[in-house]
Amino acid sequence: MTEQLHPGLNLGPQHGKAHEHAETVMFGFWVFLMSDLVIFGVIFATYVTTVNPMGIAGGPGPADIFDLKSVFIQTMLLLTSSLTFGIATLMLRHKKGVRHVVLWLSVTLALGLGFLIFEVRDFSTMFANGAAPSRSGFLSAFFALVPLHGLHVASGAVWLVVMMMQITLFGLVPMVKTRLLRLALFWHFLDVIWIGIFSIVYLGGLA
What we know:
Elements: H1 17-48, H2 53-56, H3 62-65, H4 68-93, H5 98-128, H6 137-170, H7 174-206
Helix pairs in contact: 1-6, 1-7, 4-5, 4-7, 5-6, 6-7
């Protein structure tokens, strides 16, 4: 049996059926993520066309509403969470036991929740300053893009909780292992989208 059956981290032949089954389910999940990427691409393109005086329509622009310090903290939290999820996956691959996997998943969850807290706080401040989606095309596009990513992170956090419950109930059985691989891929995908948001929306908006 070959060790590399699909892109990304593979469990390896030592995981038997879980490794064999992963090829099919991971391929299907890659297709799902590519469809999600298309949706984000369309919204990114829409946002870019609104960052101009006509799109801002006399309302608050990027320099008025973006808190780069907060966004930098969010970026560090999310990137670090991707690292900790990677460590959890390595713990799974090298059979370090349930305790180590759950520990690193818990750290990942805490970092993801920290990201969401900072993001929601920023949105709340924007609303308080009159930067609501209805104010301009720029703000409509901003609130279509950035909270959509936040919603994905929130979904990933719920998925993490469910996975930790399944690990506790069933142990690291093949079904749980392949689900963890898909969740890891999803979580890393969110990092890629966030790097795009950080670069195009925040840095690009303040340039």
